[in-house]
């Protein structure tokens, strides 16, 4: 992602730490305490205390959160698509600034680039306006490169159009922020954008591998598990990674290849089990089965599960064990969970 | 659940703490440090340190976990359906005992009551055999009282049959354990069973309400959230409880009423929003919509979400805020997460 950004003069990478939630990962993704994006107040505080002062808290803010956010210090920029929240930000003594959230086609948060609300909110923010921000979450619905490129261009053009309209009306719009891992990688150009937010690229997952963000081999996060039961009559083993350890995310259900609750790899993280997947989960049980006969596995044999959706799987765990090319542990990395 | 058990002389309640994972809840569910069931080694250690010494760790054990479990002390009984694991238990110097897991129709873990493996495993355990245990997880597939009662009877008859066969062969089988919240409540009788394990009944959820475990009004756990965006054009609001705060569990997808990712209640926990549900989730966003027009809600307005599957939703949070009949906080209860 750093290489993508380096190809665009003037563009800044503001990686989204919602996936990794780790200062150890931030040291790689945003070295030198560069700008970052966060998704919770807990992340904002954690990263600010560690030295990352330039943040965007990229979930629509509410008035009752402003005191907490202002108390963190640093330069935490908020986002809003609501005039009431904009007024509360402008009136807050903490000096907090905010970006207007732009809907570029996902239909989640944001106002559209051509809307009148764009002006109402910007005017309510007044001197606290820091820019505009878009997230093309609907890129996750794309399945081929031309569709992804079109979504990326819709995101770019939408957020730049919103910035242009505000500037024509006399507002200063220093930040024009877009980003998701897929659109960042599929955009033909990024003219007018000042910064890219992307997060899932740091670890990758089975879903992102299917929409062209990276290859299967690039998936950096797996769940280590062990065999707790052997069921050869149904070509299955039970493992101690279930719904809590993997999450119930079924992202790949709608992808070309449905991996159930995750792809089963060997202890070294190699795809040597013939495409076996976690077909069922219970709270602490996963059932691994596959199209080919499973190898003989002893009770306690260790396997790894590659996740459907790495953000949710990572959130189930208190920290990361870092392994080298095989499976020797070479470190433990921190995480900030909860809110 | 205590009343159900009290109707059966000699029957003991061994509540499953995997849902609540809280000493404060255990003090109500297993008062006087009564027997409990746990699902992780972290739970086993946490509850043993707090005084609950009589435990069943009810997930198939593996040899590499025995040292950790033995080091906890207390009386932690294991389960297994594998002769290799049974031999490791019998050979372990820690004196750990185990129950043989019986498959009474779910087709997850366990050996069937009529199998030869039942004897092989019991013989391998030798003096370490503590009993037999069944879990009719397939009760969750039932949708009416006669089906639930039949599943409960299959669970009871299966585990008692396994105990009888082992006793006929000369084994002592002190514990005959069955249980899930639905089968415990739907069983016509429990002859031959010595203890009931059930856990989700402590909090309840939208799925259990639909299979007759309790009523909607009995759901004791909700996620407090606030409105982060207003989208009247699509009769929706965005809230700050998303996939991480609610879990991605979609249990009610296959139930008579599909609640999406949860039922939206007002701040006092009352069903006054006309059946509005969380229809979509992203990591930190939920989108609430419903069949009736939503009331006017300010930015920051507080709502509560009743969960599809309380075990998974509770696991997303570091502790519980205890509220009285309205929404005044009267305490904080602990939880033990992770493994």
TrEMBL record, chains A, B:
GO terms for molecular function: D-serine ammonia-lyase activity. Keywords: Lyase. It holds the Pfam family D-ser_dehydrat. Residues 220-324 form the D-serine dehydratase-like domain. InterPro entries: Ala_racemase_N (IPR001608), D-amino_acid_metab_enzyme (IPR051466), D-ser_dehydrat-like_dom (IPR026956), D-ser_dehydrat-like_sf (IPR042208), PLP-binding_barrel (IPR029066). GO terms for biological process: D-serine catabolic process. Coiled coil: none annotated. Belongs to the DSD1 family. This is DSD1 family PLP-dependent enzyme.
């Amino acid at each position: 992602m750093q290489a993508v950004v380096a190809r665009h003069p003037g563009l800044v990478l503001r990686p989204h730490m919602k996936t990794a939630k780790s200062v150890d990962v931030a040291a790689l993704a945003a070295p030198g305490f560069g700008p970052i994006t966060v998704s919770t107040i807990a992340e904002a505080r954690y990263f600010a205390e560690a030295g990352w002062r330039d943040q965007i808290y990229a979930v629509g803010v509410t008035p009752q959160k402003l005191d907490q956010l202002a108390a963190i210090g640093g330069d935490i920029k908020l986002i809003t698509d609501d005039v009431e929240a904009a007024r509360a930000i402008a009136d807050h003594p903490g000096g907090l600034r905010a970006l207007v959230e732009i809907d570029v086609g996902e239909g989640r948060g944001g106002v559209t680039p051509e809307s009148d609300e764009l002006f109402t909110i910007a005017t309510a923010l007044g001197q606290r306006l820091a820019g505009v921000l878009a997230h093309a979450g609907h890129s996750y619905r794309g399945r081929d490169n031309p569709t992804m490129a079109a979504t990326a261009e819709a995101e770019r053009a939408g957020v730049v159009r919103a910035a242009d309209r505000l500037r024509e009306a006399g507002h200063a719009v220093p930040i024009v922020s877009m980003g998701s891992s897929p659109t960042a990688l599929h955009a033909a150009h990024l003219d007018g954008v000042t910064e890219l937010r992307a997060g899932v690229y740091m670890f990758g997952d089975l879903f992102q591998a299917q929409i062209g963000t990276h290859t299967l081999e690039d998936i950096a996060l797996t769940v280590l598990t062990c065999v707790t039961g052997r069921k050869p009559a149904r070509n299955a083993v039970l493992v101690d990674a279930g719904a809590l350890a993997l999450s119930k995310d079924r992202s790949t259900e709608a992808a070309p290849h449905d991996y159930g609750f995750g792809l089963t790899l060997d202890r070294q993280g190699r795809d040597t089990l013939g495409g076996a997947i976690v077909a069922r989960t219970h709270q602490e049980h996963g059932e691994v089965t596959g199209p080919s006969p499973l190898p003989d596995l002893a009770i306690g044999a260790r396997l790894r599960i590659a996740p459907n959706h790495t953000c949710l799987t990572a959130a189930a765990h208190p920290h990361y064990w870092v392994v080298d090319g095989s499976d020797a542990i070479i470190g433990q990395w921190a995480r900030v969970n909860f809110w």
